[in-house]
Design a protein that fits this description.
The chain has 345 residues and is of the alpha/beta class. 42% of the residues lie in helices and 16% in strands. The mean pLDDT is 95.
Length: 345
């Protein structure tokens, strides 16, 4: 495998790997190991080129640093991306990726992310021990991520409306993949009404069939008549064009990097929309995997830690209200306080 390092200010390590024999082309980004080894999933996605993949990886890695710090985990933040090119031999591709992860010498631990599965992690395991989300251990993080988002919604409802019950509330879910469909299930059982969309019509039809959801086209999800908007697809979807369209009074979803720019958190605040910062709300998967596979916790303990996202969100909302700042800035402040502590403290 050919590797090359890229120097990026503010990041500890950025390394590309290319291996023609396996059609592998990937990147590992380590943002911070101040609190422990960098933890973050592997995304398998089609990008227009290296520049777009690098931009995404940098944002995602930094987000993982803040997510892990805010969750109180002894981990730093990193992310990796395998550029999708149409090759069907997943074992060759992810074993090659495992070799790139191994080259990071334990400074980076990967797991599942968009486009990857526990089965892919098993391929990575053949080349490195620095992988989590394995079958028979913490497994698929999607249900735990969805659970955390659900608890974040409950906290937002409590703060905004005085009750954390979601019964009778309408939630517009953007994205019906692994996490989005798990969230739909949680919300359906809680008595919420669902409006859903996805680029994959098959996913939409399944959620409509199983949970009585109403389907809308992707461009109409922002203006759908809903109490809560749940972004569960890709990032950058809260921006100058979409925020004015929102009818919802709460935003809480599973997507990473939902704000296109930091100032969009301020725009949500100006519109009176309560935003559950993405890396606070969607931490359930990494919390569960880290607690079980790295810290050796019992699964029941890990569930309690995921449910504590509720308390974290209430704290963020209270700080934002008291300081008259956007909730995104309040979350950053809390995460940075944790990052300022010596490693292991």
């Amino acid at each position: 495998m050919e590797t090359r390092e890229v120097s990026v200010p503010g990041y500890e390590r950025v390394v590309w790997g290319v291996e023609d024999a396996s059609c592998y082309h990937g990147i590992v980004v380590i943002h911070s190991t101040a609190l422990g080894p960098a933890v973050g999933g592997t995304r398998y996605w089609k990008y227009p080129g290296e520049a777009a993949a690098l931009t995404d990886a940098l944002r995602l890695a930094r987000g993982m640093t803040y997510k892990n710090a805010l969750a109180g985990l002894p981990c730093g933040g990193g992310k990796s991306i395998v550029l999708r090119d149409g090759s069907l031999d997943r074992e060759k591709i992810f074993r090659a990726h495992g070799r790139l992860v191994e080259a990071c010498a334990g400074k980076y631990i990967t797991a599942e992310d968009v486009g990857t599965s526990p089965a892919d992690m098993e391929f990575i395991l053949k080349e490195t021990q620095h992988v989590a989300g394995l079958q028979g251990k913490s497994g698929d993080p999607s249900p735990h991520t969805a659970r955390g988002v659900f608890r974040a919604m409950q906290a937002a409802a409590k703060f905004q409306w005085g009750s954390d019950s979601l019964r009778g509330k309408t939630v517009a879910i953007q994205g019906c993949g692994h996490v989005g469909s798990c969230l739909a299930k949680e919300l359906h059982h809680s008595g919420a009404k669902l409006i859903v969309t996805d680029m994959d019509q098959g996913r939409v039809e399944r959620v409509v069939r199983e949970f009585g959801a109403t389907a809308v086209s992707p461009e109409k999800i922002y203006s759908a008549s809903a109490d809560i908007f749940a972004p569960c697809a890709l990032g950058g979807i809260l921006n100058d064009q979409t925020i004015p369209l929102l009818s919802a009074k709460l935003v809480a979803g599973a997507a990473n990097n939902q704000l296109l720019e930091p100032g969009h958190g301020d725009l949500l605040q100006q519109r009176g929309i309560l935003y559950a910062p993405d890396y606070a709300a969607n931490a359930g998967g990494v919390i569960n995997g880290t607690c079980i596979e790295m810290l050796g916790w019992d699964p029941s303990q890990a569930v309690k830690k995921v449910d504590a996202i509720y308390d974290t969100l209430l704290k963020i909302f209270e700080i934002a209200s008291r300081e008259k700042i956007a909730t995104s800035r309040a979350a950053d402040r809390l995460a940075e306080e944790n990052l300022a502590q010596p490693a292991g403290k």
